[in-house]
Amino acid sequence: MRALLNDAANRAIDYIENLPNRRVAPADAAVSRVAEFVEPLPEKGTDPAAILAQLDDIGSAASVAMAGPRFFGFVIGGSLPSSTAANWLATAWDQNTTMHRITPAVSTLEQVALDWIIDMLGLPRGAGGGFVTGATVANFTALAAARHSVLEAAGWDVEADGLFGAPEITVLVGEEAHPTLTKSLGLLGLGRNRVITVPVDSQGRMRANRLPRIDGPTIICTQVGNINTGACDPVASVCEHARPASAWVHVDGAFGLWLAASPTRKDFVDGIGLADSWATDAHKWLNVPYDSGLAIVRDPATLRAAMAITAAYLQMDPSVRNPADYTPELSRRARGVEVWAALKELGREGVAAMIDRDCDLAKRFADGFREAGYEVLNDVVMNQVMISFGEAQTTESVIRAIQEDGTCWCGITQWQGRTAMRISVCNWSTSAEDVERSLEAMIRIAGQITTAGRE
Ligand SMILES: *Cc1c(COP(=O)(O)O)cnc(C)c1O
Fold it and tell me: Domain spanning 85-342 has what CATH number?
């Protein structure tokens, strides 16, 4: 066992150390070897050392260096050293994070991490929440509390009696809401399409002055951190609009919520503390390993009402916070331990510095592309940048060539009818040199393709 786990640790450390030096996208030859994994279920067992060796030989080489400093696709963070280490140790603990009584250490660490985040992001004191797999489930979880609350106020117990015959709930979402938000509404029986869509501005921000008049049970879903532009809905104005009708305001802040940790950028998310619930990821901008998100609610009783269960065998001690009272899952891993470790490693100042550094590096990308004559499609004030290399087809070709080159990795998107390359800077280890090296490669590749196109 010791030899095996030491071997695993050594191979993992080699992998991590090599992240800055290797190709970001794996070579085709390495990817083609994943076919070796495809075999019938073995009749007999295999030596664990051989299993690990096979995983490393084929899997490590075929994996995309997402955790590395020059992966700018989607919105994907890496893993801070302490959070990777904490993840390894917590895996050894293998705690079923359900009841405080049987998991005193991890339950306490989660409570501490949750309180730190509430403090750091300026959310209301006394708020509660649960550690879930990511912002998708965080949206679902928080909106389940919202559904409970607005129907309870209308005299309806949705957990007991379901939605058939319930008072109607009006749901407002911005035109640029993330698809996982709409999916969550669908899972909750509120409908993906049975929503009122609020128009947005050129950056994808909800236009608060276009919110319809509201009364009756209402949930308004806002977003901070548009996946393309990084832009944030005007949450303060939305909350003002919601208050007279006692509407529930939810904030999908998968990565954007972390702007609140930066003294110089927290104005972008002004008013988030006035909302009723928040969904965020820890595996994006906080840089903890997958999978990790948080659902936070102003009034923890609403989330407990939606999530808590009782059973004679569980023996939940009501005088403490039992993790399972706040999440869709009963049994789950102790993912809050990594969040705690990351926050402890960075401290308030370190988180702010990481957010600011990533936003500054995004701006450097935008400036570099502009200087080279390419068009930046969004106002780059956060960590997201969109670049056009001209016609849609040209942009597609450049992105493909950049991915094949391997120096860095960026994805593709559509923004207001245009095809664009999307850059997201949210890794703790991305340096100014990484950005210069990536810019040099991308501009060189784009130059070759756009010149060839003109000939
Ligand atoms: C990434 C993202 C999500 C989904 O998060 P997962 O961690 O993939 O579940 C939801 N909303 C927004 C705004 C996002 O950026």
Answer: 3.40.640.10
